[in-house]
Amino acid sequence: MRGLVYNGPYDVTVHDVPDARVEAPTDAVVRITTTNICGSDLHMYEGRTDVEKGKVLGHENMGIVEEVGDAVGTVRVGDRVSLPFNIACGACDNCEKGLTAFCLRANPGQAGAAYGYASMGPYDGGQAERLRVPWADFNCLTLPPGTEHELDYTMLSDIFPTGWHGVELAKMRPGESVAIWGAGPVGLLAAHSARIMGASEVYVVDNQHTDRLELAEKAGATPIDRSKGDPIAQITDLHGGEVDRGVDAVGYQAHNPDGEEQPEIVLNELVHAVKATGGIGVVGVYLPEDPGAANELAKEGKLAFDYGTFFFKGQSMGTGQCNTKNYNARLRDLITAGRAEPGFLVSHELPLEQAAHGYDQFDKRVEGWTKVVLHPGQAA
Ligand SMILES: NC(=O)c1ccc[n+]([C@@H]2O[C@H](COP(=O)([O-])OP(=O)(O)OC[C@H]3O[C@@H](n4cnc5c(N)ncnc54)[C@H](O)[C@@H]3O)[C@@H](O)[C@H]2O)c1
Ligand SMILES: [Zn+2]
Ligand SMILES: [Zn+2]
């Protein structure tokens, strides 16, 4: 089968890879209809993780079940399914609590596993014709049959639940205001989620990316272009003070409008933009080690965080990978009912064979490349 392979920094190619197959009786094999390129893939693409060469990337996957192992009971061949990016066993202490991003059995020695991802276990990704899905009964979310809402349902594997999770981690309640840093796909879907959850005001901050900030506005948020001045002052001026909640949808590669990396800048701006006793949700990724970081502290995964102000303001912070399975069924039903349309940010649909071009353009944040989805079945 064909798959998108990581060869080294800024070098990915589609070529023949071993077929995905049923390896355990609880596995399924899914024929991928749509698989997305994620901002998380870009950390690997840029050589800013320890992902091994030869890995098939792709953790945002959906498709049709083609084969099931003998012990698979609820999922059937022919089902249309979305696969949470976290691979979870469904039976460990953390999975029992719904904390599927921290499964204790899928990646022994570490909490949490994912498809095609650095440090998240030996699993290949789904930017390929087929994908092996472990513990298939637990990890497949069944979708209505057919092809309707494909671009919306494809966001259920990661970024719609992740955006929602960011707002939940910030503990937002209906009627409250929220400021989201990052107008990438995750930030845009955090804004979409906050609107659905009843935010009174939503602000989305980014560096001068007019295409992304325009989408934020379409999603019902007030765009804040940080190249036009201090984002905190812009928000507090417009809002008449600090906001109730904040979300980091940027992560450790945060930079200023000139492109200079400042890994702590978003966390610190959030502390200052959010009210005393307010909540901050961090879904942007941070790493325990980052040898490619701009300063010595950050190379060791440490940040110059304004902890004193955070403490004095009595704020709370929630962090981590999204427990996708905690949200995806309800978010599916919001899409089916026409109450959510997370596919609004898709800018490009490409055949798998053109994936390398998609990586290049999305990585450069070329104007208009807001979210790339790949269709392995589409002719090149
Ligand atoms: N926690 C999870 O489960 C989870 C899941 C998916 C993605 N992520 C992470 O979420 C982050 C965002 O993902 P994405 O797909 O939207 O990526 P992306 O790279 O497309 O978007 C990030 C956006 O942040 C902007 N940005 C950079 N510095 C900024 C700053 N100082 N202030 C404001 N905006 C700034 C960039 O211009 C870009 O538009 C990444 O770190 C990704 O790894 C986490
Ligand atoms: Zn992702
Ligand atoms: Zn588990």
UniProtKB/TrEMBL annotation:
Membrane keyword on record: no
Residue ranges of domain Alcohol dehydrogenase-like N-terminal in the record: 25-137
Cofactor dependence: Zn(2+)
Top-level taxon of the source organism: Bacteria
Keyword field contains Cytoplasm: no
EC number: 1.2.1.46
Domain Alcohol dehydrogenase-like C-terminal: 185-254
Keyword terms of this UniProt record: Metal-binding, NAD, Oxidoreductase, Zinc
One GO MF term: zinc ion binding
InterPro entries: ADH-like_C (IPR013149), ADH-like_N (IPR013154), ADH_Zn_CS (IPR002328), GroES-like_sf (IPR011032), NAD(P)-bd_dom_sf (IPR036291)
Entry-linked Pfam families: ADH_N, ADH_zinc_N
EC category name: oxidoreductase
Family: Belongs to the zinc-containing alcohol dehydrogenase family.
UniProt protein name: Glutathione-independent formaldehyde dehydrogenase
Highest classification ranks of the organism: Bacteria, Bacillati, Actinomycetota, Actinomycetes, Pseudonocardiales
